[in-house]
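note to self: dont lose this again. the chain is below, predicted strucutre after it. 195 aa total, dont forget to put it in the shared folder this time
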Amino acid sequence: MSWSELALVVLVVAAVVVWLAWISASRLDRLHRKVVASRVALQAQLTRRAGAAIDLASSGLLDPAGAVLVADAAFAVVDDVAKSAPPGGELALDGLGAGREPAESELSSTLRSALGDGESVRELRATPVGEELVGQLAAAWYRAQLARRFHNEAVAQARRARRTWYVRLLRLSGHAALPRTVELDDQMPEGLTGS
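---
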């Protein structure tokens, strides 16, 4: 094999490696964008759930102590959303923020204790206003659960892609942070699950 044939083979191999690296980097970028988009959707659904909880707490249908606890927990979530908004609107891959996940878990726990068992939820649903408010809360909660599952699956896909040897060797992920899953208590109360 002459030096020109060898140079041609090396050039073809280099072109194939660059092409594969470009495809892998593009795929990784799409996965990172998917993580960010799913996180935005999750944040929107969790904010909707907090809004539905505030509406229920202010309706007068809950007992006064439960209404105050639910409102406090929901406003803690809303306050954390306002505080944790990144300056300039940039989006990151690192979950919801340090205070948001515990605040969301606390809201779930507070709602479960305030709504009680299935019989309490049925009593709330006895009035048209209660039916509407509890229905809105149940729908928002269910969508938040789905959004969290989709987000965590997107994170798992991105992490799997980043673990491959060629992505690490060629540093195709650049300076992007490793995506984090969102771990929070989002178990619905007994009476809402059948809604």
